[in-house]
Amino acid sequence: LTSSPLLLLSVLSPCRYRAFTFGLTFLLYTSFHLSRKPISIVKVTHTDTDVSYREFTVLHWHINRDLLTLLGAMDYSFLCAYAVGMYLSGIIGERLPIRLYLTFGMLMSGLFTCLFGLGRIYNIHNLSFYIFVQVANGLVQTTGWPSVVTCIGNWFGKGRRGLIMGIWNSHTSVGNILGSLIAGYWVSSNWGLSFIVPGLVIAAMGVVCFLFLIEREYCSVTDDTILYTSGPSLDTVLTNLQTSFNTVQLSFCGLQLLLNGVIEFSLCLLFAKLVSYTFLFWLPLYITKAAHLDAKKAGELSTLFDVGGIVGGILAGVISDKLGKRATTCAVMLLLAAPTLYGFSMISEFGLGPTIGMLLVCGGLVNGPYALITTAVSADLGTHKSLKGNSRALSTVTAIIDGTGSVGAAIGPLLAGVLSSRGWNQVFYMLMAADFLALMLLLRLVTKELTSANVVKPRSGSTTVE
């Protein structure tokens, strides 16, 4: 169980294997986001007045209930479980082989995603069933992010980490785009398939992960080759899992105090992810209301937000690499994002052309800081010199940052469901306030970066400021 049967990968040049690992982890996490997107597309159909009575009877919802609030609660059940599970996932992920841990998570995620769609096909008339599936899926999906970031972070150094991870992190947007297109294809005819097909995709990628993924920890790297060595035995794996809750290699509190910036970046990500995930779960529905489009066209148009996110993530990585200032790069993008969100809420009512342009700009500014914090910043902190070379600690650091951010991801869609019933302007005011708070949380780190840029150490060892 701990040795890959495909020994064709046992001897590869370092550059080629790093490229292979880059592409493989990209595809693996693309499938995670691909499986999360369908619910945002399907909820557009559920709010269509022509089909509302039929869909309400399927889930035993009553017409006099606030549908948007119910759908917000559906999102919340997934995201709240994801946020809670992320902290535990980092601890467990430190002690298990990444390949096995990630494979298990992907197979289970495929199962629960398919179960949601099967509820439509078999006419399951119980809302608690769908809530249970969402909670279970949220828990198992927490295996993904700490695992792939640990894998990619250990294979690539700090030299051009911002650029490399900026490009790599586009898997989030690619997954959202593919998820929108797949779900949109069946949303009007049989929305159950909008979940079943992505579920099968992520399960299939879980098998690919088991056969091909090789961790840096179990490789002997030389100048010319990478030799794969056997991982721990099954008994060792089970022993590590059994002691996961008894001993903690890295204390959460100690780690946050030890690594300067973990607290600020974690809380900043909370508000940045609140904005990003509100768009992820509610943008197609907003477009149908503002641009008067059907569910399929709204889903296709919403992919432009993710296209902008790809560009924004890459730009954030390139700029932060060149300047050497991660916090400052995030702060500038957050500063520009708030007025852009207000502009989008106004311009989106004036036709398709302006809506397309603002979707691209908003996607770049909203997802740029989110992408930079969850990738390059997490990797920098997870490989901090104070960790004394503990490469497995990256999993815990990533889980702390992304787990805190996931709290915002859970709150955002829920608040959007409540506020949208009072008017979409209320939702955008909430998003702008979140961006402003994210910016405020980075001010100390920004000041430190700008101050350190002006410090010069003379030969005598004393410090002067230019």
TrEMBL record:
GO cellular component terms, semicolon-separated: endoplasmic reticulum membrane
A molecular function (GO) term: glucose 6-phosphate:phosphate antiporter activity
Residue stretches spanning the membrane: 67-88, 100-122, 128-156, 168-187, 193-214, 257-283, 303-320, 327-344, 356-381, 393-415, 427-447
UniProt-annotated location(s): Membrane
One example of a Gene Ontology biological process annotation: phosphate ion transmembrane transport
Keywords: Membrane, Sugar transport, Transmembrane, Transmembrane helix, Transport
Domain of life of the organism encoding this protein: Eukaryota
InterPro entries: MFS (IPR011701), MFS_dom (IPR020846), MFS_trans_sf (IPR036259), Sugar_P_transporter (IPR000849)
Catalytic activity: D-glucose 6-phosphate(in) + phosphate(out) = D-glucose 6-phosphate(out) + phosphate(in)
Major facilitator superfamily (MFS) profile domain residues: 24-450
Presence of keyword Transmembrane helix: yes
Protein family (similarity comment): Belongs to the major facilitator superfamily. Organophosphate:Pi antiporter (OPA) (TC 2.A.1.4) family.
Name of the featured protein: Solute carrier family 37 member 1
Native source organism of the sequence: Salmo trutta (Brown trout)
Phylogenetic classification of the source organism: Eukaryota, Metazoa, Chordata, Craniata, Vertebrata
Gene label: SLC37A1
